[in-house]
Amino acid sequence: MALRTVKLTINGRLSSVEADDSTPLVYVLRDELGLKGTRLGCGQSQCGACHVMLDGVSVPACDTPLWAVENKVVVTIEGLGQPDALHALQQAFIDEQAAQCGYCVSGILVSAAALLAKRPQPSEAQIRDALDPHLCRCGAHNRMVRAVLKAAAAGAGT
Ligand code: FES
Ligand code: FES
Fold first, then answer.
1. Which atom of ligand 1 is found nearest the CA of 39?
2. How does pLDDT run across 121-133, given as a tens digit for each residue?
3. Residue 48 CB less than 6 A away from ligand 1
4. pLDDT band for position 156 (50/70/90)?
5. Which CATH superfamily is domain 3-79 in?
6. Under 8 Å between Cβ of 8 and 71
7. Which CATH superfamily includes the segment(s) 81-153?
């Protein structure tokens, strides 16, 4: 066990966390910082539920140790939008009813936001490729792809 104080920027705010430096980021977010929007699923980088943006790239927080985020910029679902100021992707997901139980959606929205930031007008194939690491047991994938296309058309990535 190697306790360490790590500084990082989360959702635009500088944070400092003291923990074992091998602690997976998903536990730091949920248990140390109270950011419960990031979900834990498989814990093995297999389901996509826990994805967050790390310096603009969507990564599994269950497979990202604390030491790897030192001085980096992390964006979680809480950083994408607020209930009274939704991100265009969140609004599009509501409009398209692109979820059922919702468990997978935090990670999927983060990956979609990372895609639109890099590629504001993605093709359907590019969206499907970006969402490929994400499992949705409710089978809402097609609605999600429609929602991302809708958000892109509304200028979410520009
Ligand atoms: S919980 Fe991280 S990929 Fe499944
Ligand atoms: S909406 Fe239930 S797992 Fe995706």
1. 1
2. 999 999 999 999 9
3. yes
4. confident
5. Beta-grasp domain (3.10.20.30)
6. yes
7. [2Fe-2S]-binding domain (1.10.150.120)
